[in-house]
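From the pipeline queue, job 12 of 40. The input is one protein chain; the requested action is below.

Action: predict structure.
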Amino acid sequence: MPPERLFEIQIGFYATEEDAAQLTEGWTRLLDGRAVPYQLSVARQENSATTPLAEYYEDLPRQWRFGHPEADPGSRRTHQVRVGLLASRPQMDVLRDELTRVICPDPEHNSPCAVPWESGYTDSEESADTTDDLNQRYGHLL
């Protein structure tokens, strides 16, 4: 089995508070059913790189408007869920795929998604700074 290390999965999405709460419940249920230590948090304003989430995920509102050209976005705004976890790389890849299926159950559908989203991850092996950052945030999972 490959060695475990710290990862952070990030999923940015453009949604209402109600949608964000429902998605967070779904992600929590999914993670609770796995044998992987994790910490889930939802960022609503800024990401850790001091770039506003709306700027970091600037394409998400455009994707929503593309699918709803005449509609008012109402209370929709950009959110980001962050999942820190202790896992092997293959485990993280599977979890990341499963987490994105909560927001988009059918990856083969015609675009855009009902809730536009984007995902990425940070690996503690990327650099010494990344290792320090993830250890600071998620070291309690070790």
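Job complete. Strands lie at 5-15, 38-43, 77-87, 117-123.
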